[in-house]
């Protein structure tokens, strides 16, 4: 077998650039936590880091480019959390893996609500949240759910009606070939219900009603795949 070519280590300039980009993103995440996506300001980040706003444009060409990087990072982080929690360990049945995945999804959102809102909140005016890079990044988390549901496949479920069945087939063909339309629809409906629960919780709606969100979640969890 031929030897693999040696990988050149990053240069000092490349390391410095990566460090500055990371510092900018960390400052931006603090802004998101304080003010939400609408409060994201490159000028304010520059002031916080002790450099001019224009100087930061050497690292991110625009606020939207920075926002896109934050969104993609968040999607990857969420997918990693789901993969780590609900990967296929020996002896864990698909139903148990699904419950672990659902709890990991909720835990990630509760720990980082500003990042969760960045992914699933209303889009900012003038920003395209459906750009292909973002759509591709979002699929990694959904693929974790689709993989488990393929193992939990309900062969008695009727196929979705048209044109929904064709739309779901096109979606899975582009992102996760081999998933049938009924399983794809099941994933979309489960995700919609799970997202609704989590969104209401991080907005404080259950707390304002004086009810325990843990019990609400666990009660609903038992019905999510039915």
Oligomerization category of the chains in this entry: single chain
Briefly note the structural class of the backbone: mainly alpha
Helix percentage = 55-70%
Instruction: Tally the helices.
Output: 11
- How many extended strands? 0
Set down the secondary structure blueprint.
Elements: H1 12-35, H2 42-49, H3 53-56, H4 63-86, H5 94-111, H6 113-120, H7 132-151, H8 164-175, H9 181-202, H10 205-209, H11 213-221
Helix pairs in contact: 1-2, 1-6, 4-5, 4-6, 4-7, 5-6, 5-7, 5-9, 7-9, 8-9, 9-11
What features would you highlight for this structure?
68% helix, 0% strand, mainly alpha, 226 residues, 11 helices
Task: Explain what this protein looks like in three dimensions.
The protein is mainly α and 226 residues long. The chain has helices at residues 12-35, 42-49, 53-56, 63-86, 94-111, 113-120, 132-151, 164-175, 181-202, 205-209, 213-221. Helix 1 (12-35) packs across helix 2, helix 1 (12-35) packs across helix 6 (113-120) and helix 4 packs parallel to helix 7. The longest helix has 24 residues, at 12-35. It starts with 11 loop residues before the first helix and ends in a 5-residue tail after the last helix. The relative contact order is 0.09.
Q: How do you describe this structure in short?
A:
With 226 residues, the chain is mainly α.
